[in-house]
Structures are given as C-alpha cells and as structure tokens.
Amino acid sequence: CSGSRCSTMYSCLWICLIFAVSLFLLRFFLQENKEQQTEILQQTVQEQINSEISNHLEVFREMQKNSPLLQHANYTLLAGALPQEKKLLTVGISSMQRPQGSYLLDTLQSLFQVSSEAELKSIVVLVHLSDPDPEWLSQTVANISDLFDLHIEARKLLVVHGLLDDSPMRNINQYFSCEELYFRQKVDYALLMNFASNLSDYFLLMDDNIFCTPNFVSSISQALSAWKEFPWVILEFSSLRFSGKVFHSRDLSHLASFFLLFPKNTSAPMLLSRFHLLLAQNVPIHLGPSMFHHMGNYSDLEDTCFPVEKDKVFGEPDNPTAIVVTDMMFILNSVPLYAYVLNEEPYTTLDPEKGNHLTVILDRPQKIIRIVVLTGIDENGMYQLQKGRVLLGYDIMEHSKRCVRYFLLGPLVRGNLDQRVFYDEDSVEKLSCIRLEVSESQQWLVIRQIKVWTDPEDEES
Ligand SMILES: *[C@@H]1O[C@H](CO)[C@@H](O)[C@H](O)[C@H]1NC(C)=O
Ligand SMILES: *[C@@H]1O[C@H](CO)[C@@H](O)[C@H](O)[C@H]1NC(C)=O
Ligand SMILES: *[C@@H]1O[C@H](CO)[C@@H](O)[C@H](O)[C@H]1NC(C)=O
Ligand SMILES: *[C@@H]1O[C@H](CO)[C@@H](O)[C@H](O)[C@H]1NC(C)=O
Ligand SMILES: *[C@@H]1O[C@H](CO)[C@@H](O)[C@H](O)[C@H]1NC(C)=O
Question: Does the keyword section mention Transmembrane (predicted)?
Fold first, then answer.
C-alpha cells in the first residue's frame, strides 16, 4: 500500500486496537434516545411527499386517459421475438433514416460490448425503426441481423416498426422545420414507449448515437434498487436531452399519451422536462457521473431546433465553511469535521444506528449545485454505509443551529452518492444543511469525504 490509503488503513487498524478495549464501556454510556427526533424528521419528509402528490394528482388523472391515437398503433416485428419473461430494464432506442447515415449500429455495438453476459440477462434492447421507407427498413434490419444475430436469437434484441394510423408523417422523412421535427420525434417516442410498456419494470431511453460507459447496466440497477423505497419519476444518468433517462415502465403509456396531447410546436425535451412534475417529483434527479455520451451530431436542423447538449463540467469541490455535528460515537482523535474538510482524513465511527446522522451546517446559506458523499475506506472498500440517505436542509434557526425543513436528495448507492442539486424554478432559496442519515444499523462506518460544489454564478457567494 502507499500514500494516503496506507495511512488511512493504518490509522483504522490502530484505532481499532485501542478501541476494542473501551468499546464495551462506551456503548452503554453513550446510548441516547434518538428515536423521537428521527421520527419527526421522517414525518416531515413524508408530509412533503404526500402534499405534493395530492397537488398533482388531478392533472395527472387527465393524462391517464390513453391517447386514442395509440390504441390504433400498428407494430410490425422486424427481427427478434418478445422476451419470455419480464426483464428489469428495457433499453429503448428510436432511429430514423438520416441523409448522411446513422450511428445506430455503432450505438448497439457499444451497448453490447460494455455489458457482461450477466448484465444482458436482465435487459432487453428494443429498437424502433420509425421510417416508412421499405428499402431503408429492410437494409437496416439486414445490417442489424448480420451483426447481432446471437443477441436476436437470445431474445435480447428486438427490432420493431410502428405506425400511428393516419399519421400525417407517414410518408415524410425529410424535415424542414422544427415543428415537423418535434412532431415526428414525439410520435416516434410515443410508439417506442407504448410498445415497451409491458416488457420490463423499468425503461431506459437512449438516442441512436451514443457511447455507453462500461457496466452501465449494473450501475443503473444498483441505483434502482437503492431508490426503490423512494418516490421518483425520472432518474437521469447523463445530461443529454434523452439518453440516460430511466422511467418506471408503468408510467410509459401515460408518457406516450402525454407526448401526443400537446401541439406540434412543443418539443419532446420540453415535455420530458415537465413530465416529472405531474407525478410529484419537483426537481430533476440527476445521478453522476454521466454514463452516456454522444458519438456524433446529426443535422444542422437538429442543432437549431434543440438547445445544445453539454455535459456540465465541474471543477474541484469548494466546500464552503461550515460546522459539522453528529450523534454518532466518534473514535479518539477522529472529529466529525474530518468528513467535510477537503483532506485525507476520514471520520470513523462505531456501530451507527438507524436514525443517527452527521450534519454539515453551513456558515451561510449557499446555492449548492452538486454533492458527493463517499463512505468506506476506499472505493468499494470496507466500512461503507450500507443503507443511508442524504437530506437537504433549509431555514436555519440561529440560536440552536438546526435546520427546520429537510428534503430528500437521495439514498446512497453502494455507499456513495453523487447528485446534482436542482432548485424549483421560482425559488431562490439556498441550502443551509446537508444531513447524512443512517437508515439501517451497522458496525463501523468510515465517512471518507463529503464534497460540495457551489454555483460559481451565484453572485453573493
Ligand atoms: C399494419 O401494418 C401492416 C404493414 O404496414 C399492414 O399490412 C397492416 O394492414 C396494418 N394493420 C392494420 C390493422 O392497420
Ligand atoms: C448497411 O450496411 C451496408 C454495408 O456496410 C452499408 O453500405 C449500408 O449503408 C447500411 N445500410 C443501413 C441502412 O444501415
Ligand atoms: C405485453 O402485452 C402484449 C399484448 O397485451 C402481449 O402480447 C405480450 O405477451 C406482453 N408481453 C409481456 C412481456 O408480458
Ligand atoms: C405554438 O403555437 C401556438 C399557436 O400556434 C402558439 O400560441 C405558441 O406560443 C407556440 N408555442 C411555442 C413554444 O412556440
Ligand atoms: C456536436 O455539435 C455541438 C454544437 O453544435 C459541438 O459542440 C459538438 O462538438 C459536436 N459534437 C460532435 C461529436 O461532433
């Protein structure tokens, strides 16, 4: 071993030895009744969720009426067969003819290359070819079949062609205005999602010009399992317009209808950015790092009609000054602030219990745009927080240095969290507290680092 890892490991061992002796004594004396405080906090979070759900329920009921257009959708299976059992995840890709050729085959190649056999077992890849040109269709299907024969036979790859009856776009494959492009795209996605709605539990939307990060399937499925007990509508695994957005399959038919409800000149990205609001998810949920990247652009028209997609680049974290409080037993010279100060020292604690917390209380409210929480002695190492969540606190009480309102940011995924922080459009409220909470008792916990990025454009900070 070397460097910081080495010293971390030795200090853990050393602390461990010394502490084994006093452990028994401490355990009995330091036990405090945290139950009540935790209950109040959980209640606040639950109330927040409930009130948001009832606010949006009415609007959503309207959306639930399936679009009559989709009832007459007509699909042709071009290659592959429906999977025999329900999968965890459908990767849905819609592709159309492009004058200068498409990246569809490269996208599929990337997807299958970075996924292991075990990962492929839990997914089905659904390609929707949306162009009416029969020659292009048969050539594309032939090309896909050539390259991915095995995956087609294993029912992991399915190619379909769908049509809305009487679709005015039926015979058009050249677009001259944004309005035409928006409409075509919404119809394509509606057809794709409508078909996918009972193939799996979750649905991942992807463009046909994408590089995938290795083992994205595992990363997404770990996140899905951590998020299982929390409400969400869209989990975003990249900052691209479409690619990397994951939905519950049960929402797909509503989303498909939602796409077709609006006038031609509303774009699909605009609608997507509103859809989560209808189902009571107030701000986007964006998990880092980005797992999907573009391999190329298509047309000038698309560039004109859509805002430029760029992965947000973050520099180094700039943790603003704060105090750190905790109700977890700390060990000898390990102080809670170590978890927050940008140094190599972790904060090590014994036997944290459900409801225990470590809270960063900022000296001044800040507009924070990203938070990373790392636990365990190193990446995938020991003493991670097995089950925990991060809450964002507002309204600090000056005298007691506590935040009054907390909102869920997200659960830890495999002991870590990396999330962007978004703000309601009309709210200018800044954050005052970041609270890491233990959701399940465990032995030993190392909180390695909490990293915070503030908004560089926030004038006052
Ligand atoms: C569905 O589409 C296929 C091929 O495009 C066509 O032959 C068939 O008649 C259509 N079925 C209905 C019910 O519209
Ligand atoms: C199919 O593959 C051939 C040979 O690589 C290529 O020339 C053709 O453009 C491809 N067609 C489509 C529609 O992808
Ligand atoms: C999905 O629904 C269609 C039509 O209702 C049915 O034919 C198909 O078997 C279903 N697929 C799965 C995976 O349940
Ligand atoms: C779409 O068109 C309608 C009427 O044609 C217009 O009122 C509306 O502002 C347009 N919306 C956008 C986003 O361009
Ligand atoms: C795509 O276009 C954007 C802006 O139009 C440009 O910044 C980006 O580099 C292009 N990407 C590729 C891979 O060509």
Answer: yes
Cα–Cα dist 408/401, whole Å: 20
CA distances from residue 262 to 64, 182, 390 in whole angstroms, order as listed: 14, 11, 36
Atom 1 (ligand 3): residue with closest C-alpha?
A: 198
Q: Whose CA is nearest to atom 6 of ligand 2?
A: 143
- Residue 265 Cα to ligand 4 midpoint, Å, equals 6
With a 6 Å cutoff on the Cβ, whether 429 touches ligand 5 is no
* Ligand whose nearest atom lies closest to the CA of 199: 3
**Tell me: the pLDDT tens digits for 105-157?**
999 999 999 999 999 999 999 999 988 888 999 999 999 999 999 999 999 99
What lies within 8 Å, CB to CB, of 387 at 6+ separation is: 411, 412, 438, 439, 440, 442
CATH 3.40.630.30, domain 73-305, yes or no: no
Residue 136's φ and ψ, nearest 5 degrees, are -65, -40
Which ligand has its closest atom nearest to the C-alpha of 104? Answer: 2
Q: State which of 78, 97, 98, 139 you would mutate to test the pocket of ligand 2, scoring each by most atoms of that ligand within 8 A of its C-beta.
A: 139
Would you list the domain boundaries of the chain?
3-66, 73-305, 322-460
For the stretch 191-244, pLDDT in tens is 999 999 999 999 999 999 999 999 999 999 999 999 999 999 999 999 898 999
CA 244–ligand 4 middle distance (angstroms): 28
CA distances to 45, 77, 245, 434 from 40, rounded to whole Å, are 9, 53, 33, 17
Instruction: Indicate the length of the chain as a whole number.
Output: 461
210: left (phi over 0), alpha (psi -120 to 50) or beta: beta
Question: H or E segment at 39?
Answer: helix 35-64
- Cβ-contact 91, 128 below 8 angstroms: no
CA count, 13 A, side-chain hemisphere, 405: 9
Please give the mean pLDDT across all residues of the chain. Answer: 83
Assign a CATH topology to domain 322-460.
Jelly Rolls (2.60.120)
Of 214, 294, 281, the C-alpha closest to 52 is 281
Q: How far apart are CA 246 and CA 206, in angstroms?
A: 9
Specify whether the CB–CB gap between 347 and 358 falls below 8 A: yes
